[in-house]
Amino acid sequence: MGNSQDLKARTKQFALRILRLYRGLPAREEARILGRQVLRSGTSVGANYRAACRARSKAEFIAKLGIVLEEADETVFWIELLLEGGIVRHEKLDDLLKEANELTSIFVTSLCTAKGIAS
After folding, report:
1. pLDDT tens for each residue of the chain, 119 residues long
2. Between vectors from CA 78 to CA 52 and to CA 35, what angle results, nearest 5°?
3. Which DSSP state fits 60?
4. Could you tell me the residue range of the domain that residue 100 belongs to?
5. 3-state class of 26 per DSSP?
6. What is the CA radius of gyration of the chain?
7. Using CA atoms, how far apart are residues 74 and 65, in angstroms rounded to an integer?
8. What is the CATH number of the domain that holds 55?
9. Which of 38, 43, 85, 119 could be stapled to 15 by a disulfide with Cβ–Cβ 3.0 to 4.6 Å?
10. pTM recorded for the entire structure
11. Is the four-CA dihedral 58, 74, 50, 93 of positive or negative sign?
């Protein structure tokens, strides 16, 4: 129980960091396009994790956790594009990218555990 509460708080903090990233992006068109994508996927991680915690069955939990994993991995992709596209400097995003990768790993492991698969 405590672990899910910790992860709810962690994904919420992640969403807030994504929001701050979005607000600080340059006003250029490509930054705003990628920014909207990372804003959508990054804030979706926490929202969908909360939904997974309210699942009514194991199957529903696994399905919702799969969505969480997809959104976390997609967020990694958009952050990488912001970095590799030269839109945001590494010093500004390295910690956020690390957190996105850690969350992705956590959800991969959680999904494997829920499915009864060795990760």
Report:
1. 458 899 999 999 999 999 999 999 999 999 999 999 999 999 999 999 999 999 999 999 999 999 999 999 999 999 999 999 999 999 999 999 999 999 999 999 999 999 988 65
2. 95
3. H
4. 2-115
5. coil
6. 15
7. 14
8. 1.20.1440.60
9. 43
10. 0.92
11. positive
